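A protein record in our archive is deliberately plain, so that people and models can read it alike. The record that follows is passed on verbatim for readers who wish to inspect the format.
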Amino acid sequence: MDTKDREARHFSHEQRELWEHVTALWEVARRRETGPVRKLLHRDYTGWVTGLDAPHDYEAAVASVGPGTPQVLRYRLMPLKVTIFFHEVGVVHYSYEAEVETEEGGVKPIAGRWTEVYKRRGSGWLMIAVSGGPDGMR
């Protein structure tokens, strides 16, 4: 969809590679493809969405992109910081704006921010944790 690339212009090759992985994962989620999501999450993955009482697990993360969730129509990602530790662990902070389809068939704008943690797996990245979500959910 759309990525604001002002910050990403200054990324190293390794940082850009991880950022591109994040954007590809958003596309997989937009298409509601749970199969690829299963392969891109660590089995011990954990995440915490702002405003919810407790962290969620691998199965909840997979379900969050499935057909029972609101369809993401458009989105825009704005990278804030990408840090790679020892070429093995990556932390990505970014904000987003999106439009999702409501149950009534309308469109609802949302905005928020995420922090995502990845572990290198071969030449790719495996998500191990997230924290964040829509603004205003505290």
